[in-house]
Design brief:
single chain, alpha/beta, TIM Barrel, three-stranded antiparallel sheet, globular, binds zinc ion, hydrolase activity, acting on carbon-nitrogen (but not peptide) bonds, NODB_dom, signal, Chitooligosaccharide deacetylase, Glyco_hydro/deAcase_b/a-brl
């Protein structure tokens, strides 16, 4: 069941809001249905943005028969043929979905998001989504159903555009690793605290960072507690579109270029 606010309704809401939402940016939330009598369940989603593959995570998932939904970019696919073949060899575990062609945020109203250059236009958003679909078809032989852009933030219009193209937007409810920037103990703690119906997001493309170790420990802790892991295509889910309040850019300050006082030398 889907009880999300439609993109159109949210646009009206934002337009009427007294609070400034620069660029009408939304961060879609996603939850899966509770496990009910079968017991608690979560969906583990892992992003392969670019770079390499964290085999610590991939190998543990295979050894423990833990299913996951993996969002891959065309960019990642080009340099990770071996890991991709491992994922393809386990279709019962891994659902491969679209993270775009070149890891570009589906935003046309702001120039950057988290320092990443955005698509900038509906045409570029379409090219990024379709490029990711083509890449998945060619490299993995699968047709994706879900789309998650770089940064998991979107222009509100982009959400409607991508849904019209026939793809569901893959938000999340539990941010496990903050873009693989958190240290292992924190990541482990966050994942181990997952509740029934959570959609966990983490990264599988940063093998040299501490975060991946926390992903491994966290999912093993959940498994030990009896949590079931499901993939996005295997369950019902519900979306929310949460407005992101962006700080307005500061006005440029006039900076004198001449007669700057010299810093005093300290001894
Ligand atoms: Zn990414």
């Amino acid at each position: 069941m889907r009880f999300s606010l439609s993109a159109h309704a949210l646009a009206l809401l934002l337009a009427g809001s007294a609070v400034a939402h620069a660029g009408n940016i939304v961060e879609p939330g996603l939850r899966i249905a509770d496990g009910g009598a079968a017991g608690p369940q979560v969906a583990l989603t892992l992003d392969a943005c670019m770079g390499q593959t964290d085999r610590r995570i991939l190998d543990v998932l295979i050894e423990n028969r833990i299913p996951a939904t993996i969002f891959i970019t065309g960019r990642w696919t080009k340099h990770n043929a071996e890991a991709l073949s491992v994922m393809k060899a386990h279709p019962d575990l891994f659902e491969l979905e679209n993270h775009g062609l070149n890891h570009v945020p589906a935003i046309d109203s702001l120039p950057t998001m988290y320092g990443i250059r955005t698509a900038g236009s509906p045409q570029a958003i379409r090219a990024e989504v379709e490029g990711g679909v083509d890449s998945l078809r060619v490299a993995a032989g699968v047709t994706p159903h879900w789309y998650r852009d770089a940064t998991a933030r979107y222009s509100l219009d982009a959400v409607g555009q991508i849904e019209k193209m026939g793809y569901k937007i893959a938000g999340y409810s539990l941010n496990a690793d903050q873009g693989a920037t958190l240290l292992a103990p924190m990541v482990e703690k966050r994942i181990a605290a997952a509740r029934d119906g959570d959609v966990i997001i983490a990264h599988i493309n940063q093998p040299t960072r501490s975060a991946g170790e926390g992903v491994v420990k966290g999912i093993l802790a959940l498994k030990a507690k009896g949590m079931r892991f499901v993939r996005l295509n295997d369950v019902q889910s519900s979306q929310t579109l949460d407005p992101v309040q962006m700080a307005k850019p500061a006005k440029p300050r006039h900076v004198a270029t001449a007669a700057q006082p010299k810093p005093r030398t300290r001894y």
